[in-house]
Amino acid sequence: MIMKKLYLSLALILLSCNIFADSKHMVTDMAGQKVIVPDKIEGVVSVGGTPAINAFLFAFGKADIIKNGVQNEHLKKMPFWRHQQWFMSKIFELPQVSTNPPSWTPDFEKLAQTKFDIAFVNDNLSAQMLQKRGYKVVVMNWQGENSIKRSMTFMGELFNMQDHAKEYIDYYDNIVEITKRRTKDIKNRKSALFLRVSTLMIPMVSTSNDIFKKAGGISASEHIKKEHAVINREQLFVLDPDYLFVWGKGDLKLAYNDPKFKDLKAVKNHNVYAVPLGAFFWTNYTPEQALCILWATKKMYPEQFKDIDMQKETLDFYRRFMDKELTTQQLQEILNIKKNQDKPITNREKK
User: Fold this and answer.
1) Where are the domains positioned within the chain?
2) Cα dihedral 247→253→256→260 (10° resolution)
3) pLDDT value of residue 302
4) Rg for the chain, CA atoms, rounded
5) Dihedral of the CA atoms 213, 223, 189, 194 (nearest 10)?
6) pTM of the predicted model, to two decimals?
7) What's the whole-number average pLDDT of the chain?
8) Does 23-158 match 188-308 in CATH topology?
9) From residue 182, how far is each of 170, 249, 293 by CA, in Å?
């Protein structure tokens, strides 16, 4: 009798474990499709928009469940992939499940060899291609205002980490409120442009427009509707922004050293800055956009934000939302600080 009770108890425990292991919930992705996903997601891949999607996964402490990486030798040399290795040490050891950007075509042979629960994509066509082959797919995208907050909300629902998502959204909203309050009486609003100087391309037009607006400025590209728009030199001089935010140190040198840019207002006034690069470029589709709003407004209106220490803010952000303690060298690389210039903050006490 005792043995029967023992066996029954053991069977109930095993049954409850199986039920828990198989438990699922429904989410609505950013394309509006409803998807049933496991409560415990043990493996994910991204087939398109990988650097950005990785950044969101890092923000939820999910680097360890990412099953795809980078194998192309040219891509490995790009700064943002090297930075992503700070958050995900195995990134160059894992299979690359899509072709190189910007096409991001799925590599179905690699996908078939990779074990995962969910595939992230950033467009509906890719979603349909994977769904036809039986994969469970969710769509993330950056279209529309406040896409960062909507993406964090979706990720919170996907991983049952709604409280973490809310903490981030409160942080984001607080930064926007601070910039709004401190810039509300400024009559001479500064214009800003995000530009790849080497190609005269404006990457992520809608995203940078949103950032500069929230930072209390005027986006010089606010009337441009095409994402990743390419302009000519004459158009650049028509836009002629007060502040030019550029794609990395190479573009920064080019803007200041190439004579054809010398008459730009931002160049003449020494208001050209390389955009910070953490898990991804801060001006792009990444949770780091919250920091970018604060960084950009401090650049444009230094007097109103002289009490804001971007080094401390950056250290706090990565610790709080990406569980990453930045080294001094990493902090300097992100903020494009020259060595021995502006001594890094050493007080890492959480606010």
Assistant:
1) 23-158, 188-308
2) -80
3) 96
4) 23
5) 70
6) 0.88
7) 90
8) yes
9) 18, 30, 13
Orientation of helix 162-183 relative to helix 310-322, angle to 10°? 160
Percentage of the chain beyond pLDDT 90 is 78
Closest by CA to 238, choosing from 200, 281, 203, 196, is: 200
As its CATH architecture, domain 23-158 has 3-Layer(aba) Sandwich (3.40)
Question: Are the beta carbons of 331 and 342 closer than 8 angstroms?
Answer: no
Instruction: Find tokens 């509906």 and name the residue.
Output: 124
List Cα–Cα distances, 129 to 7, 18, 50, 74, 135, in angstroms: 47, 32, 17, 27, 9
Q: Per the structure block, which two tokens stand in for 25?
A: 């919930």
Give 170-177's long-range contacts (Cβ < 8 A, gap of 24+): 171/290, 171/320, 171/321, 172/148, 172/289, 172/290, 173/149, 175/290, 175/293, 175/294, 176/214, 176/293
Instruction: Single out the residue of 270, 289, 269, 271 nearest to residue 279, CA to CA.
Output: 289
The residues, ordered by sequence, that sit 6+ positions from 142 with a Cβ below 8 Å of its Cβ are 52, 122, 148, 151, 204, 206, 207, 285
pLDDT over 60 at 96, yes or no: yes
Domain 188-308 sits in CATH at: 3.40.50.1980
**C-alpha span between 210 and 221 (Å, rounded):** 10
Q: How far apart are CA 96 and CA 67, in angstroms?
A: 9
